[in-house]
Structures are given as C-alpha cells and as structure tokens.
Amino acid sequence: MWSPSLPQRYRFLFRNLSSQLLLWVLLWSGSPALSGQVLTPNLSGADSLYLAAYEAAIRGRDGESTALLVRGMETFPADARFPRMLASRYFDAGETVKARSLYETMAAGDSSDITAWMRLGELDNFSQDYPRAMNRLHQVLATDSLHLGALLLLGDILERLEQSSARTYYERAWRHYPGNQKVGYALGNLYIQQKEPVKSIPVCERILAVDSTSIRFRKLLGYAFYKSNDPAGAVLQFNIANDLGDSTKFTYKFLGIGHYLLSNFSEAVRSLEKAAERDSTDAEVHFFLGSSLATTTRKREAMEHLETSVRLMQPDPGVLARIYSEEGNLLRLEMKYEEAYERYRLARDSNPADPTALYFMASILDNSLHRSKEALVDYRAFLDALDNLPAENLDSQSLTLRGIVEERIVSLREELFFTGELDPPD
Questions:
Q1: How far, in Å, are 119, 228, 341 from residue 125 at the CA level?
Q2: 102-111, 114-123, 204-213, 352-361: lowest mean pLDDT where?
Q3: Is the pLDDT reported for residue 18 higher than 90?
Q4: From CA 385, how far away is CA 398, in angstroms rounded?
Q5: At 86, which helix (H) or strand (E)?
Q6: By the 8 A CB rule, do 194 and 171 touch?
Q7: If you average pLDDT over residues 49-65, what whole number do you get?
Q8: To pair with 95 at 20 to 30 A between CA atoms, which of 158, 238, 309, 370?
Q9: CA–CA distance, 146 with 235 (Å, rounded to integer)
Q10: Does residue 206 carry a pLDDT above 70?
Q11: CA–CA gap between residue 30 and residue 291 (Å, rounded)
Q12: Are residues 330 and 302 in contact, defined by beta-carbon separation less than 8 angstroms?
C-alpha cells in the first residue's frame, strides 16, 4: 500500500521493479520521493517502509535502518523481507546472537533457504562449533551442490581439523570454478601441506596465466617448486615476486635457500641477510645463512649464525646434527681440531641413527691430531654403526666410506704394531 504523496510515475515503477532496484532508480533520478515525502518512518505501506530502511542503510544511517526493519517485522509479520534484511544487518554488525535467532527462524520455516543455512554455518564456524557448522553447510549443498561458499568453508573447516577430506571439497570447487583465486589458493596450499607440491604447480600457473602480477600466487608457485625439489623454479618465481614489489621475509628466505641449493652462495647470502633483518628468530634462515657464509672468508659470522640457529630451533635430531656437523667443518678449516671433534661428537649424540659424524671424528683423530689408537676406536664404531643400519638406509656415500675406513683400519693396525702399541694384526 502506497502513500498518496508518491508520484504516479513511481507507482508504475514499483509495480514493475524490485524494491532494491526501484530505490536505485529513485536515488539516481534525484526524486523528491527521497526528500522525506515518501521514504520516512511515517509511511504505513510495507513497500515504502522497506525502501525507507534500505535507503537508510545505503546512506549509512544504520540505527535508523535497524529501527525501520524492526518496525516492519512488527507491522507486517508475514513479509519475509524485513527479517531477512535485519538478519543480514545484524550479521554484518557482529551481533551474532540476534542474527542467529533470525536465521534459525528462517531455516525452520524453509529447509531450502540457502542463505539462512549458509549464514548459520558461518556463525557456527566463528564460534568454533565445527560439527554443527558442517551440518549447516551440508544443508546448503543438499539444495545447491555447487555452492562455492559452502564448498570453501567446508574445506577450510576440515583442513583446520586436519582431515584429508578437505581436499574433496576444494577439488570439487576447482573443477566447477576453475580460475577462482580463493579456490586456487586453498587447493594449491593444501596440496603442498599434503606433500604433493607438484599438483599445486598447474593450479598456480592457471591463475597466473590470467593475473600474472599476483604476488600471492607467485610466492605459492615458488614454494611449490621449492617443495618439489626444483630450486631453479623457486628462484625464478621468488625473483618475480620480489620484482613486483614483495619484500617479505618469506620471499627472501626461500629465494636465499633456493640460491644456496644451486650453489649460488653470494646470492644466497644477500637474500638470507635480508630475511634475517626482517625476522631474527627464524632458525632455518640462520642455518642457511651460516652455511652460505661458510663458503666465504666470513667464517666467524658463519659460526655465529649456526650457533644462533641451534639456540632457536626445535630439537629435531637430523637438523640439529647437521648444524653441529657444519660447525665442525668450519672449525676444522680453522685448524681448531679439538673443538671440531667436540662438534662432531655433538652431531653424533644428537642423531645416533646417522653414523657420518663418527667418520669425521675418527678422521680428525687420525689425520689432524695423530692419535691413532683413539682413531681406531672411532673407525670401528663407525663400521659397527653401519652394520646396524637397515639396508634401505645405506646410500652410496656410506658404502664408499666403509671401503675407505676398512683400508685405513688395516693400515693403522700395522703402524701401531710396528711401533709396539698394538698386538700383531690378524
């Protein structure tokens, strides 16, 4: 029912246009209907009241808009537009309790109301009630199996719950919405997390074919190459991201590690120093920076970064042993053999499953400190450790070292026998 003050031409428009579209026509035409003649709280018609609330919302008069919508619900309880718009306004304003109540009523009244179920799923996700959120989202998909928002949110929840089925929803979304950046990033990132980084590469490349300046996807593609053991591909993509203006620690870190893996140590140092400037608490950055500096004349700085990485890192045995071994190598180059031996011993203690440190310990005793009897003990310990390794853990380096050590043991026993320090050789 319309107010008598509404001009005849707008009555015709109202019969032929939706309320929202009509409002835009009125706004753009500069109609006097918006000056207070029609769209005011005094109007009795449901359509005029709804348009008044809509206009107030568009003009940023939130309190007025909410009051009009509440009045509309009270005056016209059968008109679904008022609770729907009011629920949306409550949702956007973060008034979750009020929004939830209205959306629950809508969903109970119409089980196929996708908007209500989707909003309820988002509210449950926000409150971390994940089982209920997933039930709501399945209600959305029961009506619209390709609803992008529901597919993405279900995938996100399952990913946070560390459920591999997250991939099912992301892949379904990607099949039906190829090129969508939200879907592409979620799926590409998940492939990397699930240790299948190669599958992330074509996803990123498809996005970049359309938007070549996307720094976000350049970095994701670079990381996928890095995780796929392709440091050259990683360096290329991180360089492009850097040229596009990205100067984050993440980019400099993996650009530097990529250069290190390609033996471009001077480039690695440049990038890793910038990464360290941005985050001095990243143990991995310090490790690769120290390892890169170890190839230069800056040996003392190299040692400092390696020691920093030990202090910062979580005690993963393999990584910790590698750091101690790198420090041992540096000290050996500086002819600090006793200190080098201690670092190799720490490497051995950190990761007993890797016998390589025993070889270096024996080698220092044998060739640098000339303590042959002690070297013989460590050489034998090295062979014993190799014998205890599972066959699948024996690589070509281990077999080569075994041959070298066996020959050296024979030579040492002979030398010690002739000096009277050992019984006759077998």
A1: 10, 33, 55
A2: 352-361
A3: no
A4: 11
A5: helix 81-92
A6: no
A7: 88
A8: 158
A9: 37
A10: yes
A11: 70
A12: yes
364 close to 386: Cβ distance less than 8 angstroms: no
State which amino acid sits at residue 79: D
Tell me what the mean pLDDT of segment 328-350 comes to.
Answer: 91
355-364: long-range pairs with CB below 8 Å, 24+: 355/382, 355/385, 355/386, 355/389, 355/398, 356/325, 356/397, 356/398, 356/401, 357/321, 357/324, 357/325, 357/328, 358/382, 358/385, 359/401, 359/405, 360/325, 360/328, 362/405, 364/332, 364/337, 364/340
CA-wise closest residue to 268 among 234, 229, 310, 224: 234
Q: How far, in whole angstroms, is CA 199 from its chain's centroid?
A: 16
Burial class from Cβ neighbours inside 10 Å (0-12, 13-18, 19+) for residue 328 reads: buried
Residue whose structure tokens are 């003392």: 300
DSSP label of 424: P
**Rounded CA gap, 198 and 230, in Å?**
10
Distances (CA, A) of 312 to 279, 283, 299, 320: 12, 5, 20, 11
